[in-house]
Amino acid sequence: MEKSKTTQNTNESGGKRKPGIRQWIYATIACICVILFVIWTGYWAVLILIPVFIDIYITKFIPWGAWRNAKNPQLKKVLDWVDAIVFALVGVWIINTFFFQNYQIPSSSLEKSLLVGDFLCVSKVSYGARSPMTPFSLPLMQHTFPFFGFKSYLEKPQLEYQRFKGTGHITRNDIVVFNYPSGDTVALNAQNSDYYILAKEEGRENMWANKAAYGDIVYRPVDRRENYVKRCIALPGETLSMRNDTVFIDGTPIDSPENMQLAYIIQTDGTQLTENLFDELGVSKEDYMTQTPSGGMINSFNPMGIRGVDSLSLTNLGFKYHNGSFGIAYQVPLTKKMVAELEAKPFVLSVFERNQYLKRANLKRRDVNNYDYTYPITYRQDSYSGDFPALWIPACGETIKFDSDVDYKVAAYERCIKNYEHNEFEYKDGIVYINGQQADSYTFKFDYYWMMGDNRDNSADSRAWGFVPEDHVVGKPLFIWLSLDKDKGWFSGKIRWSRLFTSGNKK
Fold first, then answer.
1. In this predicted model, which residue has the larger pLDDT, 12 or 432?
2. Which pick of 46, 143, 268, 448 has the fewest CB atoms within 10 Å?
3. DSSP secondary structure string for all residues of 417-485
């Protein structure tokens, strides 16, 4: 009797015990998960986890939980916490890397489809998860450790891009989360500004020399660049163009997103549009607070920077004369539904697209700096806002020839060949050199996509920084799990309850 009791105590204090049914079930589930993961990813080395799980649950040759027998209660408590934290971090890393990730909408480029303050659950399985290109990184941190400001990842090793099989592929009008292509280079003291725009405005040498203003200038790996979210408008191998804010694919017009916004000019009879009216329409403060003309009355200031505008000119531009005045004009981004609501107001004289107004005024891109275009071919001196010259979207395996329009092709595709597909590229005396050799053609290794915001006249998108390579694609928003209105308080409608658990991929 005494011997039996001693044996029982020995088992409870860490001796080997025969595994029960529960341990066999856990071991079987863990091994099946490992096998399925290997079939999905092709990472055969992960099979080494099978004997590890068998030992943890069944054979117990290695004392994996020996720390639980620590005699010091304080030490045991600390180790309990360390074990829980490490387990949680590993779990979060696996989920964020291969399955799902949280993302918050930071800007109004997709209004009204997605709003500033929407929190999205993004599926990485939808288009296939990427293998971790920067494997040693802290979960829940994109590139910087909060408060301390140092990098949350190790730059080496860098693994080659690989995408696992997904449940689908990108189709037109999908809302897509991706790494910001121009985010490869960042000035640490000006991280909210595009480095290439700053370099163009300030001069590259000045930026690198002015540490006080710009700080260190660093390179970020693909998967550590900022996450952006836009709508895919054109697919690999297609030709995109725009005329009068209508997108054409291969010469055929496509339907605009239901909630697409354009910048409109609203002319009233002198009645000021109130904050309550904008709130009813769903226009955020960010969109209207800085866009009302400081002069108030339209006949007492020069709209859109035109000098010497008389009544006849204003009428030709679309404004209406009413009771001896042209009233007040506002510039606000609106959907077609919002336009209809405004036109029904008795004090609204006219509502018309800003881009059409600019065309009537013969103001071209060189006259209106409404975009900081860094993508070279888009900055056409002879083109209008709302238009875009025809552009072919590169596709994997497709070849371009440098036999004609070489200047155009270099401007359009140099960044793809050099920055994204990592070739040495030089254009000299009308001749293209790739990796030191004269080249009369180039075959693309990646598929590329053309992304645009629904808030068309207030969106920095592919029209500004060009194509999105396939290795930059992160995933597809599934649903909105939280939505907070930054213009309202907690007790005055801050939580947008009607948006919770609605689709994150609105067409």
1. 432
2. 46
3. IIIIS---EEEETTEEEETTEEESEEE-SS-EEEEE-SBGGG--SHHHH--EEGGGEEEEEEEEEEEB-
